[in-house]
TrEMBL record:
This is Dihydrolipoyllysine-residue succinyltransferase component of 2-oxoglutarate dehydrogenase complex. Residues 2-77, 105-180 form the Lipoyl-binding domain. E2 component of the 2-oxoglutarate dehydrogenase (OGDH) complex which catalyzes the second step in the conversion of 2-oxoglutarate to succinyl-CoA and CO(2). Its cofactor is (R)-lipoate. Pfam families: 2-oxoacid_dh, Biotin_lipoyl, E3_binding. GO terms for molecular function: dihydrolipoyllysine-residue succinyltransferase activity. Its EC number is 2.3.1.61.
């Protein structure tokens, strides 16, 4: 019986979404909790995972198509028969690979780091020593203060040795591993012959949820190999990991192995764990604390009637997408309104440098983007010179790069003003913190219908609260209120954006 693959429930302020990337194709065998497809909204990317093991029977919507909440986008069927044929191929490949002659040793190095970055941290090794790898396969993630760099295999072979473990601090072009080019995979080694084939399959097919469960509970790859899997072909499931953790927690504390990266404390039936902050999280924490302590931050609020924007979007979204190849969202309107308001209030587009005020005659707008590793603020350059279509494309590109860990230092540096949208997560109102060295930040929130007085009558309108946090050392109350009112007026009468009035 086929199982439906559906779009997740979308935030209230999000009308529809777009199929961003299918990670599988029809006929592929998938395991429970495996990520099948990325669904992109105006601000966040949602993952849709397999509800159970099976085979992709049908994909109803291709990449780039617009979908609605809980819409069926694919079918998952029972796939024992389909899986039998593909299963033979890897065995043939393995036999061919074992006949290859070991080649020379190739060094795996840390990439060249940006000039402003002194060192980096080994974030995640995606392979273990002894595993076969293919050319351009991602081997390890290297994390700097702001971006994550991927180190890929220079050619086919076997990862012979890992010289720097996860959590280690490394420098540019440091050797962190050794690759034997063209060597046979670890399965051909005598040591691996004693291991049951089910465990090999189990290790090679860990789903994202299983990897996440292992990482959250501080279980190393070596320890994970000792856990008995209950899934297809002996694969580990999330439930196997949870059962193992519960059994481990009930055992005497003295028997629990120590993990330097994550320490678990056993307190009867209750447990707690201590996990070191990532470099990105530490940087975010330090910058937010610095902004709070070094600025005279104040927040002013207003609200905007979103009906005019929503009417335009509803009327022209299909034509807009057909012409520009990207969906028409709310962020492009807000970005356009912000750049126009910044022209009228140059102090909000300025920054303080010591005892000087630096006024910028360009308009680079930072966009707060939520990524798996934390909140980052990539920059949309020269936003005042871009049309709505170009703004939407730029925002989408930055969001995808953030999701995939592809943001560069150039993407992250600069920016004169920041826009953040907590509304996609359901936030009704908040006080955003300034993104130093900028002077102000605009917070968008959830669109909610409320009764409003219009010309002496009560109307139900889709309203959004806006919050402007600003540095009172540079911006006076009159300017901040005027700036926010300008944005409100431009959004409630979008014609003003077109006519520049």
């Amino acid at each position: 019986m086929a199982v439906e693959i559906k779009v997740p429930v979308l935030p209230e302020s999000v009308a529809d979404a777009t199929i961003a990337t299918w990670h599988v194709k029809v006929g592929d065998k998938v395991s429970r909790d495996q990520n099948l497809v990325d669904i992109e909204t105006d601000k966040v990317v949602l993952e849709v995972v397999a509800p159970e093991d099976g085979v992709i029977g049908e994909i109803k919507f291709a990449e780039g198509e617009t979908v609605l909440a809980e819409q069926v986008i694919g079918l998952l069927g029972e796939g024992q028969a389909e899986a039998a044929a593909p299963a033979a191929a890897p065995q043939q490949n393995t036999q061919q690979e074992t006949q290859q002659v070991e080649g020379e040793t190739v060094e795996i190095k840390v990439p060249v780091l940006p000039e402003s970055v002194a060192d980096a941290t080994i974030a995640t090794w995606h392979v273990q020593a002894g595993e076969s790898v293919s050319r351009d396969q991602n081997l390890v993630d290297i994390e700097t203060d702001k971006v994550v760099l991927e180190v890929v295999a220079p050619e086919d072979g076997v990862l012979a040795e890992i010289l720097e473990d996860e959590g280690a601090t490394v420098t540019a072009e440091q050797v962190i591993g050794q690759l034997k080019a063209g060597a046979a995979p670890a399965a051909a080694a005598p040591k691996a012959e004693a291991a049951p084939s089910a465990s090999e399959d189990k290790g090679d097919a860990l789903s994202p949820s299983v990897r996440r469960a292992l990482a959250e509970n501080g279980i190393s790859a070596e320890e994970a190999s000792s856990i008995k899997g209950s899934g297809v072909d002996g694969r580990l499931t999330k439930e196997d990991v949870e059962a193992y953790v519960k059994t481990k927690a009930s055992a005497p504390a003295a028997k629990a192995p120590a993990a330097p990266a994550e320490v678990a404390a056993v307190l009867g039936d209750r447990t707690q764990k201590r996990v070191p902050m990532t470099r990105l999280r530490k940087t975010i924490a330090n910058r937010l604390l610095e902004a709070k302590n070094s600025t005279a931050m104040l927040t002013t609020f207003n609200e905007v009637n979103m009906k005019p924007i929503m009417d335009i979007r509803k009327k022209y979204k299909d034509l807009f997408e057909e012409k520009h190849g990207v969906r028409l969202g709310f962020m492009s309107f807000f970005t356009k309104a912000v750049t126009e308001a910044l022209k009228r209030y140059p102090a909000i587009n300025a920054s303080i440098d010591g005892d000087d005020i630096v006024y910028h005659n360009y308009f680079d707008v930072s966009m707060a983007v939520s990524t798996p590793r934390g909140l980052v603020t990539p920059v949309l350059r020269d936003a005042d010179q871009l049309g709505l279509g170009e703004i939407e494309k730029g925002i989408r590109e930055l969001a995808l790069k953030g999701r995939d860990g592809k943001l560069t230092m150039d993407d992250m540096t600069g920016g004169n003003f920041t826009i953040t949208n907590g509304g996609v997560f359901g936030s009704l109102i908040s006080t955003p913190i300034i993104n130093l060295p900028q002077t102000a930040i605009l917070g968008m929130h959830k669109i909610q219908e409320r009764p409003m007085a219009v010309n002496g009558k009560v109307e139900i309108l889709p309203m959004m609260y806006l919050a402007l946090s600003y540095d009172h050392r540079l911006v006076d109350g009159k300017e901040s209120v005027g700036f926010l009112v300008t944005i409100k007026e431009l959004l409630e009468d979008p014609t003003r954006l077109i006519l520049d009035i």
